[in-house]
Amino acid sequence: MDCLFCKIVAREIPADMVFENDACLAFRDLNPQAPTHVLIVPKKHIDGLASASLDDDLQSLLLAASEIARQEGIDRAGYRVVINSGQQAGQTVFHLHVHVLGGRTMAWPPG
Ligand code: 5GP
Ligand code: ZN
To answer: Which of 51, 54, 89, 109 is in Cβ range 3.0-4.6 Å of 47 for a Cys bridge?
Structure first.
């Protein structure tokens, strides 16, 4: 399958890895939108949140987000966890991923 994040999971494309467990892998975003900007992807290909099912281990993505925030030292100040689902929300890579952003003050509502 011609999927960028599957290729990163398979180590066919390099990425700056920050975390891994049985279910997911996390690496720094190539075009960071905050001092800390990490992407967490399930190792299994899922197109996006709309395609996820109860059988998919979504829990491990959120628990990884909280673990990575601690590891990056942004947990006390606060951080944002984002899933862009679909084109209008700004999803550009159609392999489910969770953004973890921190290290600066976040605006609300998001743009
Ligand atoms: P989306 O817009 O789909 O929610 O997020 C996709 C993210 O993937 C973007 O923030 C973009 O900067 C990041 N990205 C795109 N290509 C690459 C890549 O080859 N390596 C890494 N590390 N991040 C990428
Ligand atoms: Zn994929």
So the answer is: 51
Minimum CA distance residue for ligand 1 atom 17: 30
Burial of 16 (0-12, 13-18, 19+ CB in 10 A): exposed
Average per-residue pLDDT for the chain: 97
1-41 per-position pLDDT tens digit: 799 999 999 999 999 999 999 999 999 999 999 999 999 99
Residue range of the domain that includes 56:
4-102
Residue 110 lies in a domain: no
Task: Among 3, 9, 92, name the best residue to mutate to test ligand 1's pocket (greatest count of ligand atoms within 8 A of Cβ).
Answer: 92
Q: Is residue 109 part of a domain?
A: no
Q: Is residue 30 part of a domain?
A: yes
